[in-house]
């Protein structure tokens, strides 16, 4: 059996010896790893010229490191993750195993990440709500009149991501991407996740789109429903190429 904690210690000692500590996180810590899972490690420095991320193979193990100091963590939490309603970085920090041991800095960063998660994502503003509903409405119109199964599959794929993103943001939930969409939706609303899976699975297998249209309508309805007539988006003053 692979000793991932020992591997993380070796990686810190060999690649990041001047770091304050590292946090071993990800699916391996949650006992959800597969044979293709990588080792997620957050490397914490007291001060760093710039944050970076790198991937490599160590002793046959896939490794991905996220190298930060307190200021760069603050930036990515507030300016990047929060704007996309993501808690990926903060979740890794909170669940991370401190290596070689807990330090004042690692405890401070864990406390900050925990507070970030509890505070929740930014509230969905009216314009973003309208933009997302409008985009989803257009996707539904596309699948109502799809030309072939290839077009249907492509549109359904995009709709699945757009619809789940809207659901998370409109309901004040932290969002997920890729495989984490279904996991998070099941966590927030298991009944809805089952209905979404059934609807999209039916559409893909049988080219029957009725359930997809219905579940989309149900998700949008509390927040204004489908939107086309009356939609407007105003460009900002900065959105122009000025003549020299």
Features:
single chain, 244 residues, alpha+beta, 5 strands, globular
Number of helices: 9
* DSSP summary, beta strand count: 5
Q: Segments where pLDDT lies below 50 for 5+ residues?
A: none
Give me the strand/helix succession: HEEEEHHEHHHHHH
Helix content: 40-55%
Radius of gyration: 22 Å
Strand order of the largest sheet: 3-4-2-1-5
- Biggest sheet record: 5 strands, mixed
Mean of residue pLDDT? Answer: 91
Task: Please tell me what the overall shape is.
Answer: globular
Distance between the termini: 66 Å
> How large a portion of the residues is in β-strands, by DSSP E?
5-15%
Describe this structure as you would to a colleague.
The protein is α+β, with helices and mostly antiparallel strands. It contains 9 helices and 5 strands. The chain is globular, with a radius of gyration of 22 Å. A 5-stranded mixed beta sheet has the order 3-4-2-1-5, sandwiched between helices. It is 52% helix and 12% strand. The longest helix is centred in the middle third of the chain and has 22 residues.
